[in-house]
């Protein structure tokens, strides 16, 4: 029996039967392509969230006590379980989020790879180590370790409903925390499936990863539930609300927010490859990708060829929910209005709409947006300044890569970006100066598939990092310990120190540091 069938009691009418934190109110999630109900879920209120967190707190102690090896063994069992049920989960992702099955497979595969990396690198990144003591504590030993925070609350979005929350969940668990996850109200079945899979694969630590379902109120209750940290992934406006709520209890936050990522196409770029990457980066997942390409700045030398290539490639795309569709419906219906406003605003400001657009043909059937390419969009337009989060792309002609970089950086966001260039040195220089947390050269989105690399943004794209060693440390507190190995005849930190101690110390400091000018 599939896990989804076993979970029918969760997702069906009798949701309460497996909801151990009883609540009588429920809500539905629906298939964005058909409107069919995918499942019915408990609307967890503050009491239910509070008792889930308490249960997770108890589990956290035994989960931490398992140590790195014990946790690794169980996280390995979890990833094995996910890998064996990959198609089943991908089917659910297709139904509830709308993305093509193949894209769901890619997303889940990335999440599994991160799980493996996190569990296998946690000891090296976080385990106890001795550090050098320096001059003033030469008679001591010093130890550093990264201890878990207890319970981590994860609040997730709907656009990558497996990969995105797993970037926090996997790393928080590997670091020794229990996790309570609040999936988006658009993808609760996927969240519930991930937690049910955990219970099945890791029965002896089942409460170390639990799910609560509901809307923003449930997320706010998680912020107030006394967790050790909130890992939030979502939009910048909601991120501000989450921070304000967490401020009430001084709960630390990790903010993974939206983006307005740019691609720079330089004079010597491989134009065909750049166009291929731009179209994928902008249109895959219906453009509902935080690190999707929303703006391209192409130099005058390549602009015409690049536009022609993008136009040709975009014509072969088709939104739909059948097996041949290249991307699916908009998961969140209200986003269509945002996309339409950005395109209309750009068109009325003089932009050229070369494919897609705002008319009826551009919205082929309810819930879909045609791939839309906009040229000459004024820099102050919403389509350049705000996150569009749809299958749209602006292409702007610039004099050279320096102008491209200046415009790419002229945004309140700063999540990621990409550079296409024939010169390694030039591309690396541009990448370093791009104001973003991540940049890929001659490809798009690649950094997300490298588990050792940190993931996160600057400015309105948030702060803190998931993935890599930084991502593991994000879910810990650094603990410093010193141990006196032997007593010195003179202890400078004692009221019994001789009167001349300070002079002797000043002489030593002068000898060691004074010669530096
Ligand atoms: P959203 O901000 O609307 O919602 C995110 C989550 O926050 C949901 O689970 C929601 O229920 C919850 N929430 C809403 N109000 C809340 C409140 N007051 N307190 C606590 N929780 C609350 O975002 P979304 O529409 O689900 O996702 C799309 C956004 O996420 C886009 O902006 C996208 O760029 C961003 N995103 C960022 C990353 C990243 O890693 N930086 C990854 C994926 C998506």
UniProtKB/TrEMBL annotation:
Gene3D superfamilies: Aldehyde Dehydrogenase, Chain A, domain 1, Aldehyde Dehydrogenase, Chain A, domain 2. Residues 1-29 are annotated as: Disordered. SUPFAM superfamilies: ALDH-like. It comes from the Bacteria. GO terms for biological process: aldehyde metabolic process. The keyword Oxidoreductase applies. InterPro entries: Ald_DH/histidinol_DH, Ald_DH_C, Ald_DH_CS_GLU, Ald_DH_N, Aldehyde_DH_dom, Aldehyde_DH_NAD(P). The keyword Oxidoreductase applies. Keywords: Oxidoreductase. GO terms for molecular function: oxidoreductase activity, acting on the aldehyde or oxo group of donors, NAD or NADP as acceptor. CDD domains: ALDH_DDALDH. Residues 22-481 form the Aldehyde dehydrogenase domain. The active site is at residues 256, 290. Belongs to the aldehyde dehydrogenase family. This is Aldehyde dehydrogenase.
């Amino acid at each position: 029996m599939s896990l989804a069938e076993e979970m029918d009691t969760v997702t069906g009418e009798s949701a309460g039967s497996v909801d151990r934190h009883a609540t009588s109110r429920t809500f539905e999630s629906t298939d964005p392509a058909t409107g069919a109900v995918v499942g019915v879920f408990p609307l967890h209120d503050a009491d239910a969230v509070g008792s889930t967190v308490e249960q997770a707190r108890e589990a956290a102690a035994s989960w931490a006590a398992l140590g790195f090896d014990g946790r690794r063994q169980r996280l390995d069992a979890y990833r094995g379980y996910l890998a064996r049920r990959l198609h089943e989960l991908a089917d659910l992702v297709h139904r509830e989020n709308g993305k093509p099955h193949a894209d769901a497979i890619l997303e889940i595969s990335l999440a599994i790879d991160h799980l493996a990396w996190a569990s296998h690198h946690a000891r090296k990144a976080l385990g106890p180590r001795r550090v050098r003591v320096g001059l003033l504590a030469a008679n001591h030993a010093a130890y550093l370790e990264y201890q878990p925070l207890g319970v981590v609350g994860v609040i997730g979005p709907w656009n990558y409903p497996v990969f995105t929350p797993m970037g926090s969940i996997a790393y928080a668990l590997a670091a020794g925390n229990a996790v309570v996850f609040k999936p988006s109200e658009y993808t609760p079945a996927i969240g519930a499936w991930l937690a049910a899979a955990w219970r099945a694969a890791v029965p002896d630590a089942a409460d170390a990863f639990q799910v609560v379902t509901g809307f923003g109120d449930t997320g706010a209750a998680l912020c107030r539930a006394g967790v050790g940290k909130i890992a939030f992934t979502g939009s910048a406006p909601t991120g501000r609300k989450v921070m304000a709520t967490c401020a009430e209890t001084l709960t630390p936050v990790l903010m993974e927010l939206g983006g307005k990522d740019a691609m720079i196409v330089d004079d010597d770029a491989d134009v065909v490859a750049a166009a291929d990457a731009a179209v994928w980066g902008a249109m895959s997942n219906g453009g509902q990708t935080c690190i999707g390409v929303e703006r391209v700045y192409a130099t005058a030398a390549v602009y015409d060829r690049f536009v022609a290539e993008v136009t040709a490639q975009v014509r072969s795309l088709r939104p739909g929910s059948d097996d041949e569709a290249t991307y699916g419906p908009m998961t969140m219906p209200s986003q269509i209005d945002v996309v339409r406003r950005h395109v209309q605003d750009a068109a009325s400001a003089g932009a050229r709409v070369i494919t897609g657009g705002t008319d009826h043909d551009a919205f082929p059937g309810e819930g879909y947006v045609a791939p839309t390419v906009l040229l000459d969009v004024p820099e102050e337009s919403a389509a350049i300044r705000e996150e569009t989060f749809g299958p749209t792309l602006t292409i702007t002609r610039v004099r050279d890569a320096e102008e491209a970089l200046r415009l790419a950086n002229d945004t309140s966001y700063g999540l990621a970006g990409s550079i296409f260039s024939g010169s390694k040195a030039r591309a690396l220089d541009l990448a370093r100066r791009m104001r973003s947390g991540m940049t890929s050269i001659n490809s798009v989105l690649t950094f997300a598939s490298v588990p050792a690399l940190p993931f996160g943004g600057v400015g309105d794209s948030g702060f803190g990092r998931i993935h890599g060693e930084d991502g593991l440390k994000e879910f810990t507190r650094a603990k410093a310990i010193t141990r006196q190995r032997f007593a010195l005849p003179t202890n400078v930190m004692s009221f019994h120190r001789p009167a001349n101690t300070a002079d002797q110390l000043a002489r030593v400091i002068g000898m060691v540091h004074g010669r530096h000018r």
